[in-house]
């Protein structure tokens, strides 16, 4: 079998020419074996009609195997010549022939250096794309964070609006005055809480004394 990879032919045919020849060889060989078995069975049947024959079935099998070996040796020689002819004249694409899908290489030829430069440029573009994609993800995360902060600010503004409405209801329209009003009331509430705590402590002590 030929050791030439014949990659261009494989691209065109969809299989390597050597694989094709190997399958043809196996098919012919199988057919040869089957044919010899048929010949052997015919001879054995013919011998059944001659009970006094001095040839045994074992001798016939030995003769069949010997003849098969002879046929296979000659078949291999013939097939080797046929394979050489087919690989050179039938399954071979000449060096000056381009497949239709490779015509673009003829129109836009590239040297190895140009091809390597193109590969380097592609790698750089891929790196830039990855960096921009990563930056885009970071930007999206920042936008989501800003949305969360904006929602919290809107809640605070709503709270201040409600606070201003409460202050207006109590007769104070200025925010500073309203804040001072709330601070004063909160201090009063703190004072009331302290009084309640003191009274509760006194009650606890009096209960303990009793």
UniProtKB/TrEMBL annotation:
GO biological-process terms attached to the record: cell division; kinetochore assembly; mitotic sister chromatid segregation
Coiled coil listed as a keyword: yes
UniProt-listed Pfam families: Mis12
InterPro entries linked to this entry: Centromere_Mis12
Coiled coil (residue ranges): 108-135
A Gene Ontology term for the protein's cellular component: MIS12/MIND type complex
Keywords, comma-separated and alphabetical: Cell cycle, Cell division, Centromere, Chromosome, Coiled coil, Kinetochore, Mitosis
Subcellular location: Chromosome, Centromere, Kinetochore
Similarity comment: Belongs to the mis12 family.
Name assigned to this protein: Protein MIS12 homolog
Organism: Casuarius casuarius (Southern cassowary)
Gene: Mis12
